[in-house]
Amino acid sequence: MAKFRIEKDSMGEMQVPAGAYYGAQTARAVENFPISGLRFSRRFIRALGQIKAAAARTNVKLELLDPRRGGAIETAALEVAAGKLDAEFVVDVFQTGSGTSTNMNANEVIAARAAEILNGSRGDKELIHPNDHVNMGQSTNDVFPTAIHVAAMDAVEQHALPALRQLADSFQAKAAEFDDVVKAGRTHMQDAVPITLGQEFSGYASVVRHGVVRLENNRSSLSELPIGGTALGTGLNAHPEFAPRVITELRSLTGHLFRRAENAFEAMQNRDAGVELSGTLKTIAVGLMKIANDLRLMTSGPRTGLNEIELPAIQPGSSIMPGKINPVIPEAVTMVAAHVTGNDTAVTISGMNGNLDLNVMMPVIAHNLLESLELVGNAARVLAEKCVQGITANVEACTTYAERSAALITAVAPLIGYDAAAKIFKKALRENKSIRQVLLEDGVVPEERLNEILNLRKLTQGGRA
Q1: pTM here?
Q2: Whole domain around residue 453: which residue ranges?
Q3: Are 47 and 107 in the same domain?
Q4: Same domain for 446 and 417
Q5: pLDDT tens digits for range 48-89
């Protein structure tokens, strides 16, 4: 049995694996771009399948494609969307900047599968042509950015937002649980006035909720699709009704409220919606990094660190130190944050390369954007389920730190003056005594009044002594 078959494209003959659905242009791209081994994600391939199915439906309804041929293309495209032909998408992420190789990969696979559905042979271009039929009314230049938006919208709605909402809820639940656990605040890594552990956790919940709102706001720009603009935005070779009808079909296929780009030329030239979304993901990653590092600090110890909270023990922490448990989930989250930040830099630089009428770094935008969405969603879910939900407070340690904090003198300063308070602060540190102890020993404030002023719980509620 032959291992290869011969297929032709406009540049000549190519050997194609005998069992492959893809054709000559895909095989040529495989030879041209042996760069990373990275392939486009399941969401992106699904988006391509959905776009091709929507285009086929539209072209049949516009009577540009006969129903038999169009129906076979739609069926094959939906198989691509469902993941049945993922192994056929073999082109490297790092390729032609428009993504033409991957668009043609999709066209060839769908054409071959559609021909098979019609009882023809793979590669029978007379029956189903990848350009003339599957790509009818389209260009890579409008298909590829449309696929970025469709895939990213799906990742935002179905993956990242639910995970972030879950994380925010987990922090909020802990904020309520730890509402009466008073501890020392710290600024500049130094003693500060008292705060409750619940207040700190409410701040973490708010960080994540702000991220949710930012991500929700990105949906407006993501909903704009350039499909129908063909090569440059003019719509050359597309029926005047093609764009609105394809978008209607995509709304039906995806469940998302897509709309036609307000300006087709902007939508072809720029990938600003992707840059904006990547920036949001970076902002979320920055917040997650800060939170994860705070959790690591607060759980540090158990004998030589802060030891204010205990994280769930989920695995041994050392291959040499018996019994050691490490904050592995926060550590994983910090690595995700670093990676997402790096992805954003690449997306930003890629977004700058919208030379004249087309961005020519779309594949790396697609890959990095979808990877960041996946990572942020997964990290948020894992942090919620494997860490935050199981955190417990070391109340004794928190209370001790709150009572020992030299910054308690702040509450007395309005009564005795800033300079006198500073002297008490320095004496307490010099003699290794609490602020309360020095104030009582020096008779600066009567004990009854001092007890009123240094009520730790009240100090977390603001106000003046």
Answers
A1: 0.96
A2: 405-459
A3: yes
A4: yes
A5: 999 999 999 999 999 999 999 999 999 999 999 999 999 999
- 4-35 core/surface letters (b: 16 or more CB in 10 A; e: else): ebebebeeeebebeeebbbbbbbbbbbeebee
My answer on whether 152 and 183 are in the same domain is: yes
Tell me: the pLDDT tens digits for 311-364? 999 999 999 999 999 999 999 999 999 999 999 999 999 999 988 999 999 999
**Are 328 and 427 found together in one domain?**
no
Query: Does 113 lie in the same domain as 159?
Result: no
- The catalytic residues are 188, 318
CATH of the domain at 116: 1.10.275.10
Domain termination site, one of 136, 162, 197: 136
